[in-house]
């Protein structure tokens, strides 16, 4: 998809300088910036002081999405496993 982007002279100069400094094309830098903005957009709802501790979700690979679920042994539940971990076994 082709897109026209209008920017002021200062931003255009900064983009050109960054492209020269990094050896990447201006188009590549713009694509990366847009992708990063979209990926991090939802983090804007959080206070700036904690944003660095959060990581946006990534899409799971198709292999993970189709991997068969493991079944618990007969008579074992999540609750019983948590109780065991807490040391709350049968009394």
If you had to describe this structure to a student in words, what would you say it looks like?
This protein is mostly helical and 91 residues long. It has one domain (9-85). 51% of the residues lie in helices and 0% in strands.
List keywords for this structure.
51% helix, elongated, 91 residues, mainly alpha
Topology summary:
Blueprint: H1 9-22, H2 26-40, H3 48-51, H4 62-66, H5 78-85
As for the number of domains, it is 1
**Assembly annotation:** single chain
Query: Could you tell me how far the N terminus lies from the C terminus, measured between alpha carbons in angstroms?
Result: 66 Å
Major sheet summary line: none
Total helical elements: 5
Order of helices and strands: HHHHH
Percent helix, as a range, is 40-55%
Can you count the beta strands?
0
Mean pLDDT, to the nearest integer, reads: 83
Radius of gyration: 24 Å
Which structural class is indicated by helix and strand composition?
A: mainly alpha
Amount of beta strand: under 5%
The shape is elongated
Low-confidence stretches: none
How do you describe this structure in short?
The protein has helices at 9-22, 26-40, 48-51, 62-66, 78-85. With 91 residues, the protein is an all-alpha fold.
């Amino acid at each position: 998809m082709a897109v026209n982007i209008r920017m002021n002279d200062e931003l255009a100069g900064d983009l050109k300088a960054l492209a020269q400094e990094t050896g990447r094309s201006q188009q590549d830098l713009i694509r990366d910036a847009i992708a990063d903005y979209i990926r991090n957009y939802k983090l804007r709802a959080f206070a700036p002081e904690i944003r660095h501790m959060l990581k946006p979700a990534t899409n799971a690979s198709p292999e993970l999405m189709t991997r068969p679920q493991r079944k618990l042994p007969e008579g074992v539940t999540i609750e019983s496993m948590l109780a065991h971990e807490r040391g709350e076994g049968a009394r």
